[in-house]
Every structure is written in structure tokens, then in C-alpha cells.
Design brief:
This protein is an alpha+beta fold. It has helices at residues 24-32, 34-44, 47-57, 66-72, 90-94, 141-145, 148-153, 195-198, 204-207, 275-282; strands at residues 7-10, 15-18, 111-113, 118-123, 158-164, 171-173, 179-180, 184-186, 210-216, 222-228, 236-238, 251-255, 260-266, 271-273, 286-289, 294-298. A hairpin with a 4-residue loop joins β1 (7-10) and β2. Keywords: Decarboxylase, Lyase, Pyruvate, Zymogen.
Length: 299
């Protein structure tokens, strides 16, 4: 069984870190063993499995998981809008709100900000992408967006993939100001988006259940904003109002329990990603950064 660790670069600590994976044993068994792969096909990838697990996380007795989770993953309760003992179940804690002061939004008018806390990879030019988690391995854009004409329009565009671990703040936000359209749901299975799974099948990102929103902006054109479901994330919950203007950093929605991802796709020659993001992405190393911090500048 392959037990290669997952490493990322922490923007704030300025060092390479090893990821502490929630549920690592089950995840590696599922994707790295024959028995696990059989269980994956028969059970884990299906929506009913995630609904069942989500139901468990909605039970009042799941509150008992909150305090150990905060302790084990070194979360800061001072950032929370609600205190840890106020959550009615684990899922309420999982999609908790944070105080605005915990995630200030970069105020440079030229900046575009990360939409979520997480580990990020960028692709400056999709037509020249050499791979995300493994060199030479990239998902199919037409499959991802579910529209061949839209895929052709963004074939030379830029992309940001943000991977949220179960330990992360699980609300997602708009990367720039604009007017968002409705979210179009694209059905699919619910496979893990952890690198353990993606190293074996990058197409998971393009085929999982996902939602696509077109954000109309003044300086970036139309930005494709996507949320990708994953194992135990059957619910992608939108909290914004389609057709109403949003500011940079405004909340768009949240994921219920589990790891998940967001994807931003920009028109060609619209954005210049920050140097540290470009540098580590070129080496298939994710950059950890928080929502509201700069990911790049308007070109």
C-alpha cells in the first residue's frame, strides 16, 4: 500500500509542512487497497453513503466530537462567531461562521482573493498545463463545466483549485466583486478530493457532483466559480442571491461535512497569480492560504 505523505507549503510559516489527514486510515484503505476499491465502487462513492454520514453528523450526540476536534487540529475558538458549546451538532460546528476580523479581505483594489481556506494550486494557462498533483495528469475541462462551448471559451484561461480539508473553515466566498448568476448543479458521484485519491484519478474533480456559477465582473470578465462535492459532502449550500451585486470576499455558501474543493476559472490574460502560488504550483505543491488573502492581481 502506498503511504506517501502529503506535503504543502504554508504561506504564513514559509515552510513545507506535512498534512495531518482526518480519517487517514480509512481514506488510504479505500483508495490504496483492493478491498477498499471494491467498497468504493459498491458504497462509498454513492450519494446515499454521504447522506447517511451527514445524518450521523446532524445527530445531537455528535456534539461530543467538537471539543476533541478543536484540540486535535489546533483550531482557534476565538475566531468563531459561536462558542464551541453552542453548536447543536457536529455539522453546525463544521460549517461554522467566523468573525470578520478572523479573515480580513485584502483591500488592494487590484487584488483577487482566495475564495476559501485551503491548499491551493494555480494554472496560469490551461492550454499549457503540465499537471496538478502529478506531472502530466490534468482533468478534462469540457467534462468539468458540462458545456463544450464554455470549455472552448476558457481553453486558454487561468484556473485556481482550492482544496478544503475537513479541518478547514468550510464557507466559500467570492474572489472579486461582481454580479453572480444562478448556480447550475451538475450531478456526479461523491469521491474523495484528497491527493491520495487524486493522484490515482485526477478526473474525480471533473466528474464529482458540482455547482457552476458565472460571476460577471468589470475587470476580469466572466469568472466561472465552481464548488466540488466529495465523499461525505452531499450538500453544497448556496447563501448568496443570484442577480444581486456582491463585494470581494462576500460569502457565497458553505459545504456540509467532509473535505471538498472550489475551482475558479478566469478568461485568458485577465489575472496574474502571486509569485509564491505560481512557484509552488509549478512543482505540484499546494500553497496553504486563507480566504480573503491575495491570490493575484488583475492583469
Amino acid at each position: 500500500m502506498d503511504s506517501e505523505p502529503i506535503y504543502y507549503f504554508d504561506r504564513y510559516r514559509k515552510e513545507i509542512c506535512e498534512e495531518k489527514i482526518y480519517g487517514e486510515g480509512f481514506l488510504r484503505w479505500t483508495y490504496e487497497s483492493l478491498g477498499g476499491k471494491l467498497a468504493l465502487a459498491a458504497m462509498v462513492k454513492h450519494a446515499w453513503f454521504s447522506r447517511w454520514y451527514g445524518w450521523r453528523m446532524d445527530r445531537p450526540k455528535s456534539r461530543a466530537k467538537v471539543a476533541p476536534f478543536i484540540r486535535d487540529y489546533l483550531l482557534d475558538p476565538n475566531e468563531f462567531v459561536r462558542s464551541p458549546d453552542e453548536f447543536e451538532h457536529f455539522n453546525a460546528f463544521f460549517y461554522r461562521e467566523l468573525k470578520p476580523s478572523a479573515r480580513p479581505v485584502d483591500d488592494d483594489p487590484q487584488s483577487v482573493v482566495f475564495p476559501a481556506d485551503g491548499r491551493h494550486l494555480c494554472v496560469p494557462d490551461l492550454s499549457r498545463c503540465e499537471g496538478l498533483f502529478v506531472k502530466g495528469e490534468m482533468f478534462d475541462l469540457r467534462t468539468l463545466v458540462g458545456d463544450s462551448q464554455l470549455a472552448d471559451r476558457y481553453a486558454n484561461g487561468s484556473l485556481l483549485l482550492s482544496r478544503l480539508c475537513p479541518v478547514d473553515y468550510h464557507r466559500f466566498h467570492f474572489p472579486t466583486a461582481g454580479i453572480p448568476g444562478p448556480a447550475r448543479l451538475i450531478p456526479g458521484p461523491l469521491l474523495s478530493v484528497n491527493p491520495i485519491a487524486l493522484r490515482q484519478n485526477i478526473q474525480i474533480l471533473a466528474t464529482n457532483k458540482r455547482a457552476l456559477t458565472v460571476l460577471q465582473t468589470e475587470r476580469l470578465g466572466d469568472v466561472l466559480v465552481m464548488e466540488i462535492g466529495a465523499t461525505c459532502v452531499g450538500s453544497i449550500c448556496q447563501t448568496y442571491e443570484p442577480g444581486q451585486s456582491v463585494a470581494k470576499g462576500d460569502e457565497k455558501g458553505f459545504f456540509r461535512f467532509g473535505g471538498s474543493s472550489t475551482i475558479m476559472i478566469f478568461e485568458p490574460d485577465r489575472i496574474v497569480f502571486d509569485e509564491d502560488l505560481r512557484e509552488h504550483s509549478a512543482n505540484q505543491v499546494e500553497l496553504f492560504a486563507k480566504v480573503g488573502d491575495s491570490m493575484g492581481k488583475v492583469q
